Every structure is written in structure tokens, then in C-alpha cells.
Structure to design on (865 residues):
């Protein structure tokens, strides 16, 4: 295997293929950078060109792009408070406050460095799991997947902010929005109001952008201020990298979370940043997450790049795409004359290994490129609101319309955007809504399948019990810790 | 400073336009092409799914060959209109796309079966389209070695319920579910899986113990399980020949069809309502799995041209070789033969239609005419 890995490295380093990888990286960064355009759009753009390409070249192009999307998407999240793709929503929580206090460069330095480390860990994880992928994947049957969605939903409680009631309500609202469209298990449409558009459900990019971007845009217009309140940009890239090295265990921990979530098919990687953020919040001592804590940037950024390596395992070896991006990647494989399946680790092992190398190299180069771009791009946060809003609005509308290219997307964009604005005014937390929305379908699907297939006997599966204990621990642990910290506070007050 | 801002603005805008270019190209060309009856320089394949799926790949695979074999060598482009499980895009093609012979539709079983069963959201009539080229796909039902032995010993003596992991009773699963019905195998369908990949993993986990896969997935992912003794093929769903008879799948000449298994078990030919409904569905969803169409009211010259290019594509040795992989090795149908087969496949009798609608209602509480 080591010998084949070295051979694959030479295949990847062939100048012609390297050129395609850099092309992929540039496209990936632009697509990530533009709010609203996600990996799915990037893949759809590149798909027509991969037809008949040598698989190594095609893979260099596609994987080069996938690898760096979650590096480039950090720019708008930190600078504008608008997620570049749905994978970098959690970065906003602390990245945006940091930018507001003039520390955008520091936040981005940390973010890109962590993206790189996370991405490389993801690539290594892909390499290491190749021999043990099959027993790992088959150990997650529907009941276990259901419990994992519950674990994800319990994150909504952790991200609820001050009021648990508001958090739970927002989460439930998210579940309700996620239930629109065709039901997963019975051919039945819900809340479609007789329109064909809603039968496919509401698309994630539209919700993710609208709920964060819309309120920010209104604030920018009404307050007539620049994002950076201090009006100056501090040089902090190195500071950010030092922050990340200081928190190396958090980086590694979050990357492992990212790999695992990506690895489990059917869970959808879209919540990985929130889960890493939630775990970070829970496990980092003395944190002030949500108010500009650099560790609140480090956790999700390490995880979202690492996820890609994990999610390629079920995609390549089992033909099960975990996301829209990997679904198109499967189509790309077919166009290049390859088929996902066990032969990817036997006859086509060299292709798989070249993917691993591309993933690692693209993450390193992508992060380096982004660090170079920090200086020019971070000036964005100095532009007055009313000047930048028209550009943003055009981009966001295009982004929203891209998801299914139907007018319905624009209507939903405005409705969800207004909902987001109302929620910010009333101080309701928005992350629980997104988590509920993303997990609604999977939660329902796996619950239904578990009951249909096993009745109630699945409750006693060992893995189900372990996950249940973990959920209860996380939820009650929060309450206990809060109580404890309150005690400390009151004591301190005395 | 101001310059910087403008520059950044321009860069962002350029990026946005770059990302958009394939779409704008696609939509602005309608008018230009409509009056160029002397030969289009752009053909558009409308695919009612998102990029990357089976139907999309089928359309994209065909594009260079249509470009090469059509006079004028037009550019051929795929346009994806996803939504409503392919119904949105097919409706759009039928009602809002100029019937000028430059716009073609790539359809699959997901558009064919709802049309056949009068699903209410269907706003297209496949008989108003002219088929240009069509391809079959196949399906193989397999199970665990223990259950295969029990079935071999006699379906009537089976005391165990089998579990089938499926997606939805109205999709491609319907044919397989009806094949159980034909054979009288007691199978509980657990539906709601995300796709055929996850349902195959469910089989590997033991969550289900009878499953089917289409040709490519079977060869790539099930064959290794069979080689390891973890699965045994039971039967193929078969193909419908030009006389309407169910025959062996050319890709699986050694696996018996559901018909042969029936004869072996019950000592007579299958017949009756279930059998008729089943063969009708196999025809519309497998034998006519993917079809490229053009509007009937497109200029006749254009239709003739497209049909002629389909004929030559089918003979192109390069196409034949490349199609081994992507078209699963089946021969394509063109011309009169294709038209004949389409007529047979979608000409469902009222009794068969009512039987299937009723089957869905009684077993899955689905009223397809209200979907």
C-alpha cells in the first residue's frame, strides 16, 4: 500500500495534472468565496468538462475544487457575517464578532490554517480507513443512524444561547420547515399548497443564506456602518496561526469529529460545523463562544474541511453520496469510465490514492492561496454598508436562484430572510433552526425505517444505548455546568 | 482606496458572471435558434434531474455523438431542470419549450410510470413526443444463500417473512414489488431509503434480506458479494421483446427470469392481472428505461434529421465500445423499432391501470391519481 501511495504521488505530481488541480483549486476558492454558490454548483459547472478525461486529470480537477470550497467560504462568513456556503455557518458565530472588532485578519489566519490542517487530516483518514471501511460502514444501520440524528438535534439545545425555550422552539420550527415536500417513507406531499415547486422540499442553500444574510443586509443599510467598527485592520494572520497551534488539541479533536460525521452516510455533512462548534463550546474551558472567541472559529473550520475526506469513503467505496457535491462526483466518475464500488480499492486503487494526494495537496495550496488573499479581500469589511449591499444582494439572489433555478427559490429566500430578521430582532437563536431543518428528513427517515423493520427491539442495540447515554450526558452536562458556573458567579459576587 | 473598492467589486461581479455563464447561455439561445430552420447550430437536451444522476449522465454521454452525426455538427448542450421527481422538467418541456427540433427531452422511468398511471401532477403526454433513441436497463433480484435455498425448496413452504429495503412504492421499486406478488413470495417492504446504494448497504448489514439492483450496480457491487458467498441471484426482472413476451436479459444470460422461476415453482405459465400489470411495468420502466424525445410538432425535416443521426450513432463502432460502460452494454433502439416498442410500452389497458392503482392504494395507501 505504501508503495502504491508513492506511485500515486508521482501520478498526481505530473505537471499536466498539477495544472488541472490548480484550476480546480481556483474555481473552488471563487465558488466558496461567493456567498450562495456551493460545492454542488461548482461540481455542476465542471461536470461537462470531465467527460472522457483521463480519470487522474478529471479527479485532480474535481477533488481540487471540493477540497478548498470550505477554505474559501470562510471569507464572507468572517468579513460579512454571511455564510459562503452552508458549511461555514458556525464560523460566523465568533468570526464575525472578531471582524467587527477589527481582528478579521487574525480570525482568517486561524481559519485558513485550521482548514489546511483539518483537510490534511481528512485526507489521511481517507487513506487509513480504506482497508477497514466496510465493517465500519455496515455497523451503522438505521437505528444507529436515527440516534446520530438525535445527537445532532441535541446540539440545537447547546447552541440555544440564553433561553432554552427559544432554542427548542427554533429547533422545532426548523424541523417543521424541513418537513415541507415529499415525505421520505410514504409517497405523500406535505405543506406544498398544490405547487410542484415545493414537492422537492426547500433547498438548504436558500435557507442557510437567507437566514443569516438577510438580517445582516438590513442592519448594514439601516446602521450605515462598515463591518469593522474600529475602522482599521490589524495585521493578525500570524497571530491567528499561533492561536491555532496553541489550541492544537481542539484542532485535532474537531477534525476527527468532521471526519466521522462525513464518514457516516446519510447524516449529511451540512451540520458538521455546528456539531464541531457545539462540542468545542462544551469542551473548551473558560470560553466566551459567540462573542468573538478565536476558538469558536478554530473548531468549525477544522471540521468542515476534514469532512470531505470522510465523506469520500462511502462515496467511492459504496456509491453512497453523503451530499449534493458527492452525488455529482459519482456522476463524474461514470463519465470518466469508473464506477464507485469495492473495485476502487482493488483494480482502481491508484485512482483512489491519487484522490487522497490531491485532497492533501489541494488543502495545503488552497490555504496558502487564501492567506495571500487575506490582505486585499479583508478590505471588504471597511466598505460602507450602503455601497456593498447592492453587490451582495445581486450575488445572494443569484446564489438562491442557482439552487433549483425556479422562481420559488426567490420567494422562499425572502420569506426565510424575513423570518431570520424577526428572529434577530426578538433575539431568537438561529442555529437551532438550521440544525432542525437539516436533520428533519434523516431523523424521520431512520425513525420510520427502524420502527417498520424492527418494531421496538432496536432500542436495546448496544450502539443505540451508547449514543443515548452520550446525548443525555451532553444535555444534562450543560445544565449542570451552567448551574455550577452560576454558583461561582454568585460566590464571586459575594 | 476607492479604486480598490471598485476593483474588488468588479472581481466579484466577474466571478458571479463566470459562474452563471452556462445557464445564461442555455436560456438566451431559445429565440436565436427558433428561426434557423435550415439547421440548428445548438441542440439542447433537457434533463429533468439535477446534474450527476443516471439520466443526466445518459444525456451527457449522448451529446458528442449527436454533435458528430447530425449535419452541421451542432453544439449539443445539457440543461438540467430538476424538481418533482422529474415531473417539473418534463412538464416544462411539454408546455414551455419551443418545438423547433433543437430542444430534446431526456426522460427515464420516473417520467414514464407516472404518465402511464395518470398521476395528477403529470401535465405532459408522451404520445405527443417522437422518440429518437432509447435504451433499456435491467434488474436482478438477489437474496441471502439461506433464503435462496428455502425459496428453491418451494415458495409455498416459506414460513419466514423477507424484508425488502426500498425507496418508494411508486418508483422503480414497484416492478420488483410486483415480481414478489407474481411469485407469491411473502415480502415486507420497508420503504424510505435514500437510494439504491443505501438499500444495498441495508442488505449487507442484514437489515434487509432480499434486494434488487440495476445492471451496473449489480455488476459492480453485488457480484463481489456473490463471489464471497454472501448473496445469491434469484432471478432477473427480464426484458420485453418485440412480441411483448418476457425474455432473458441479454446482460444476464445465465440467470433465469421471474417467468422461468414461476414455471419451475408452479408448473405453469404465469398469467392473469398481476402478470399483465407486471410485464406492462417492466416494459415502461426497464425495456424503455431511458428515451430521448423531440416534440411531435417540430418541423418534420428536423425530426427526420435527428432520427437519421440516431441511426448512424447506433452503428458507430466507437459509440458501441463506449456504451459498454455507460449504457450497461445494451443495444440502443432507434427508428420504427423504437416507435413500435414505445407504443407497446405505454399503451396500458384500463384494467391493468386500475389494477396497479388499486394495488398501490390497498398496500401502501397511495392514491396516485391525487399525487
Amino acid at each position: 500500500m505504501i508503495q502504491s501511495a508513492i506511485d500515486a504521488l508521482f501520478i498526481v505530481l505530473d505537471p499536466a495534472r498539477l495544472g488541472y488541480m490548480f484550476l480546480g483549486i481556483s474555481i473552488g476558492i471563487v465558488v466558496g468565496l461567493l456567498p450562495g454558490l456551493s460545492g454542488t454548483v461548482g461540481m455542476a459547472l465542471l461536470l461537462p468538462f470531465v467527460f472522457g478525461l483521463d480519470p487522474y486529470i478529471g479527479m485532480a480537477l474535481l477533488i481540487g475544487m471540493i477540497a478548498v470550497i470550505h477554505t474559501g467560504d470562510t471569507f464572507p462568513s468572517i468579513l460579512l457575517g454571511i455564510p459562503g456556503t452552508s458549511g461555514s455557518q458556525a464560523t460566523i458565530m465568533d468570526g464575525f464578532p472578531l471582524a467587527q472588532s477589527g481582528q478579521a485578519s487574525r480570525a482568517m489566519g486561524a481559519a485558513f490554517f485550521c482548514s489546511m490542517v483539518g483537510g490534511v487530516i481528512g485526507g489521511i483518514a481517507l487513506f487509513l480507513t480504506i482497508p477497514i471501511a466496510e465493517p465500519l460502514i455496515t455497523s451503522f444501520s438505521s437505528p444507529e443512524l436515527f440516534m446520530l440524528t438525535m445527537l445532532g438535534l441535541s446540539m440545537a439545545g447547546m447552541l440555544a444561547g440564553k433561553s432554552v425555550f427559544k432554542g427548542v422552539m427554533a429547533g422545532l420550527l426548523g424541523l417543521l420547515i424541513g418537513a415541507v415536500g415529499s415525505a421520505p417513507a410514504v409517497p405523500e406531499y406535505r405543506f406544498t399548497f398544490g405547487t410542484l415547486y415545493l414537492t422537492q422540499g426547500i433547498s438548504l442553500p436558500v435557507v442557510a443564506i437567507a437566514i443569516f444574510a438577510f438580517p445582516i443586509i438590513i442592519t448594514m443599510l439601516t446602521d450605515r456602518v462598515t463591518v469593522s467598527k474600529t475602522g482599521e485592520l490589524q495585521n493578525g494572520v500570524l497571530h491567528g496561526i499561533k492561536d491555532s497551534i496553541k489550541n492544537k488539541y481542539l484542532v485535532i479533536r474537531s477534525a476527527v469529529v468532521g471526519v466521522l460525521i462525513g464518514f457516516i452516510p446519510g447524516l449529511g455533512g451540512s451540520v458538521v460545523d455546528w456539531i464541531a462548534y457545539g462540542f468545542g463550546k462544551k469542551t473548551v474551558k473558560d470560553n466566551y463562544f459567540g462573542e468573538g472567541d478565536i476558538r469558536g472559529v478554530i473548531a468549525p473550520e477544522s471540521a468542515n474541511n476534514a469532512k470531505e475526506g470522510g465523506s469520500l469513503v462511502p462515496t467511492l467505496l459504496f456509491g453512497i453520496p453523503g451530499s449534493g457535491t458527492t452525488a455529482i462526483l459519482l456522476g463524474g466518475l461514470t463519465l470518466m469510465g469508473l464506477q464507485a464500488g469495492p473495485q476502487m480499492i482493488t483494480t482502481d486503487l491508484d485512482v483512489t490514492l491519487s484522490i487522497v494526494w490531491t485532497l492533501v495537496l489541494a488543502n495545503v495550496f488552497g490555504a496558502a492561496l487564501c492567506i495571500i488573499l487575506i490582505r486585499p479581500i479583508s478590505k471588504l469589511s471597511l466598505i460602507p454598508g450602503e455601497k456593498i449591499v447592492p453587490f451582495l444582494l445581486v450575488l445572494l439572489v443569484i446564489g438562491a436562484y442557482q439552487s433549483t433555478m425556479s422562481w420559488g427559490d426567490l420567494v422562499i429566500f425572502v420569506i426565510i430572510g424575513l423570518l431570520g430578521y424577526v428572529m434577530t430582532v426578538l433575539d431568537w437563536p438561529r442555529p437551532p433552526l438550521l440544525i432542525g431543518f437539516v436533520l428533519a428528513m434523516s431523523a424521520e427517515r431512520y425513525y420510520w425505517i427502524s420502527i417498520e423493520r424492527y418494531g421496538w427491539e432496536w432500542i436495546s442495540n448496544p450502539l443505540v444505548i451508547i449514543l443515548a447515554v452520550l446525548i443525555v450526558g451532553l444535555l444534562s452536562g450543560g445544565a449542570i455546568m451552567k448551574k455550577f458556573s452560576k454558583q461561582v458567579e454568585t460566590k464571586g459576587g459575594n | 482606496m476607492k479604486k480598490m473598492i471598485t476593483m474588488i467589486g468588479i472581481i466579484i461581479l466577474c466571478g458571479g458572471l463566470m459562474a452563471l455563464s452556462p445557464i445564461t447561455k442555455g436560456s438566451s439561445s431559445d429565440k436565436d435558434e427558433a428561426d434557423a430552420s435550415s439547421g440548428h447550430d445548438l441542440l439542447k437536451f433537457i434533463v429533468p434531474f439535477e446534474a450527476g444522476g443516471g439520466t443526466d449522465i445518459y444525456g451527457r454521454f449522448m451529446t458528442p455523438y449527436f454533435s458528430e452525426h447530425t449535419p452541421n455538427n451542432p453544439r449539443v448542450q445539457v440543461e438540467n431542470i430538476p424538481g418533482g421527481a422529474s415531473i417539473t422538467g418534463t412538464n416544462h418541456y411539454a408546455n414551455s419549450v419551443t418545438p423547433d427540433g433543437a430542444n430534446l427531452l431526456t426522460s427515464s422511468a420516473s417520467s414514464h410510470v407516472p404518465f402511464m398511471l395518470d398521476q395528477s401532477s403529470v401535465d405532459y403526454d408522451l404520445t405527443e413526443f417522437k422518440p429518437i433513441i432509447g435504451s433499456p436497463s435491467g434488474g436482478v433480484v438477489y437474496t441471502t444463500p439461506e433464503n435462496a435455498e428455502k425459496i428453491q425448496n418451494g415458495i409455498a413452504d416459506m414460513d419466514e417473512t423477507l424484508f425488502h429495503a426500498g425507496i418508494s412504492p411508486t418508483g422503480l421499486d414497484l416492478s420488483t414489488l410486483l415480481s414478489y406478488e407474481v411469485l407469491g413470495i411473502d415480502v415486507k417492504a420497508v420503504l424510505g431509503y435514500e437510494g439504491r446504494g443505501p438499500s444495498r448497504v441495508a442488505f449487507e448489514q442484514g437489515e434487509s434480506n432480499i434486494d434488487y439492483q440495476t445492471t451496473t450496480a449489480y455488476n459492480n457491487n453485488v457480484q463481489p458479494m456473490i463471489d464471497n458467498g454472501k448473496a445469491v441471484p434469484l432471478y432477473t426482472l427480464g426484458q420485453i421483446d418485440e412480441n411483448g413476451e418476457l425474455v432473458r436479459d441479454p446482460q444476464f444470460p445465465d440467470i433465469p427470469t421471474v417467468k422461468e422461476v414461476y414455471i419451475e415453482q408452479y408448473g405453469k405459465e404465469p398469467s392473469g392481472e398481476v402478470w399483465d400489470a407486471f410485464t406492462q411495468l417492466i416494459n415502461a420502466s426497464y425495456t424503455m428505461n431511458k428515451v430521448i424525445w423531440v416534440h411531435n410538432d417540430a418541423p418534420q425535416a428536423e425530426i427526420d434529421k435527428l432520427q437519421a443521426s440516431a441511426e448512424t450513432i447506433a452503428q458507430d463502432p466507437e459509440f458501441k465500445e463506449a456504451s459498454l460502460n455507460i449504457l450497461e452494454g445494451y443495444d440502443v433502439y432507434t427508428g420504427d423499432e423504437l416507435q413500435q416498442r414505445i407504443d407497446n410500452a405505454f399503451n396500458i389497458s384500463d384494467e391493468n391501470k386500475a389494477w396497479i392503482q388499486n394495488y398501490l392504494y390497498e398496500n401502501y395507501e397511495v392514491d396516485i391519481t391525487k399525487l
Q: What stands out?
A: The mean pLDDT of chain B is 87. The first helix of chain B runs from residue 2 to 34. Chain B has two domains: 39-136+288-350, 139-285. The domain at 39-136+288-350 of chain B is CATH 3.40.190.150 (D-Maltodextrin-Binding Protein; domain 2).
